[in-house]
Amino acid sequence: MRPSQEASSGRSAMSDIRHSLVRRDALSAAKEVLYHLDLYFSSQLQTAPLPMVEKGPIELLEEFIFHMPKDRNPKPKRLNSLQELQLLEIMCNYFLEQTKDSVRQILFSSLFSPQGNKADDSRMALLGKLVSMAVAVLRVPVLECAASWLQRTPAVYCVRLARALVEDYCSLVPGSVQTLKQIFSASPRFCCQFITAVTSLYDLSSDELIPPIDLLEMVVSWIFEDPRLILITFLNTPIAANLPIGYLELTPLTGLIRWCVKAPLAYKRQKKASISNGHIGSKIVPKDSKVGSDQDCHAMYSKLHLSVLQVMMILQGHLTEKNLYGRLGLVMFDHILPLVEEISRLSDELNPLNATSEIELSLDRLAQALQMAMASGALLCTRDDLRTVCARLPHNNLLQLVISGPVQPQQQQQPAHTSLPPGFYPHIHTPPLGYPAHGARPSHPTLPSVQSFIPGMTFPYRPLH
């Protein structure tokens, strides 16, 4: 059959389905449209492995599932709350009973892929409720479809789904996060995508965008139990060297690094604002409770930082295996730039005299993350790039060591530097005003010489807390 004939046949089929649905009540029509489109897509998949989703099925779903008015039907039938709940149950059961993953995926995509029209708000609202129900009743096929949806949908929509789930399980009902937590073993792929979405949503740029403690505890427990969870999408996806712009990243590595690095400063900023507003010590927020909560959060970020570093230690082998080492940056340098700028801004905003330890911890974590990301091939940049980017940050010994690089033994054929002692690496940062530069220390001939850096030698690594 020619393409034009196939298109004509498809339009005729959609028209026949519509005529059979317009006389039904809203819930019955919604149920029937799923049934008819299931048959339609099953037939399409027999002739093409990846059929294009045409306009006809999308319009049917918008009319009978999302109730967008058509010219011929200006007053569409609406579902009441009970009928909507029944529809969600019908959809959950459909995706569970449909055994062909390809049919599930194409129907899920037809239902919930944004179309850039008025139906998108209804589409996103129903998606949030469907995935929330799937979490509650553990409908793994729905979660797997949602994981694929998160991977191929622009990030602005992904964070809306993430926000809906966080509100349902971390805000509305205390303790309900345990229900969300249980999907770790049921659908790790969804968990990986969900972490990527929530780290994109909660970027700690303001007090409102600090992750809720229940969400933080859940994410940390997932990753600490199995740090490889971070890499599931990356390991199970055919990847090109150039990733699309505007979508979620392949891994949540960048978002998790942002959490760990910015957390000390963001919580200090939050505490400073609370003191200014007189909340600390009031009946609303007991002081002891607040201090204990902050300590719990700092301990969790420390565990998370360790897990992120552990993942990057095994990442080089996976990049090499996929022939992407040196070609694909999972931690993009363009995302490091705003992170460094935010750290610089927060350091200036907080009084350095009152936030010395927080600034030091933040910069230590940044240095460790940068070093491990560069060593594993996750971050593709030179140390010169890092020197330029980090030039405005407060001085930090570990960060200076990372951006300076190891001290290499001098070649015999090269003359020693005339103004610097052998083995001395010049400082990147100039001393603060009012303090003289350190002079070269006198040599001690009785002490053994410092061991030179050997590039191929491994060394024990202990993250700073």
UniProtKB/TrEMBL annotation:
Pfam families: INTS15. This is Uncharacterized protein. It comes from Pleurodeles waltl (Iberian ribbed newt).
